[in-house]
Amino acid sequence: MDGTYGRSWMVKRRELLGMVGATVGAGVLGTGAAEARPQDVHGRRPPANRTLKVMQFNIWLGGSRVPGGRAGIADTVAAVEPDVVMLSESNPERVAYLLADLAARGLTYFDNRNPTDPGVISRYPIIEYASFPSWSKAVVSVDGVEVAAYSGHLEYRYYVNYLPRGYGGGTPAPLETSEYGWNEIPTGPITDVGLIERLNEASGRTEVTRTVLADAAEERAKGRLALLAGDFNEPSHRDWNHRTRNLFDHHGTVVAWSTTKAIEEAGFRDSYRAVHPDPVGTPGFTWPSDNPGADVGELTWAPKADERDRIDFVFYHPNRRIQLLDSVIVGPSSTIVRNRRVEESGRDPFWRPTWTWPTDHKAVLSTFRVSTR
């Protein structure tokens, strides 16, 4: 596929994502109880602790952009065996395919029946579910310990982490920088941090996230644990600091990205950064990912820049019943830099696929211990 066709496809993909992930209401869209099955039968007493593996997984339009991508999604879940998966670029049809593909592999997962993107699937019973703009929720029962798990896929436009890299971020008119679209900026990088932060706030990503943070506070007041994960289409304030200002084409900028900051201010912890606090040695980039089944032109949006960022996250709210054990990147250890496939040079731990990798993101897998009594 030549670069021109690849670029037109990518713009089309962004438009599709806008339709899939569009805000469809100002509050909760629906709530209900999902079908559940007890995990322990015949009167067996569950163990005092359970390992809970949580994966954030952007499935790139259901794996449709890679030969064998649909099977690759199920193979990823089957290999990693996460207990809860937060799915981005999903929809009810794609989730139904995934559950069927997992069943064919002898695995039973439940889903939270979100009518649009994003979704949640779980090996544990889902006892309640709800939908929000750009987010959905599944309340999972882990041997009686109830966990509110929130899955997010946030606004893809206003991707203003591209401005310091010399590219427009798809900011819509009539806002500043809208004239550049997703294209290279003729005058070079824009490093006005005040402008970057204003345009980022205009995306609405932080606003819709505050809605689920308020809901999570209510869930915690009921005694439930809380997890929050997603493809934010926005980096972390912990990754654009004084130590990285001259790395990764940040061009001297230090940006307090507001969505991750709001989540941390609500008491949540970034699981990957908690285990790997160094954004230089363990940057944890999740986008773009290399994918041998896709042309490089499909994997990069800023071909003359180092556009790597960590935009996929798993957060948890500290509680005596949950302990973070580990967090790793699932996906190829190679990436795309300046339109070339390269190996990551940091010390990030990777779970490298031996199966077809189905997406242009890397997944994040965080492992917890949950005390059940």
Automatic annotation (TrEMBL):
Endonuclease/exonuclease/phosphatase domain boundaries: 55-361
Classification via Gene3D superfamilies: Endonuclease/exonuclease/phosphatase (3.60.10.10)
Record keywords: Endonuclease, Exonuclease, Hydrolase, Nuclease
SUPFAM superfamilies membership: DNase I-like
Superkingdom, taxonomy of origin: Bacteria
Gene Ontology MF terms in the entry: endonuclease activity; exonuclease activity
This protein's name: Endonuclease/exonuclease/phosphatase family protein
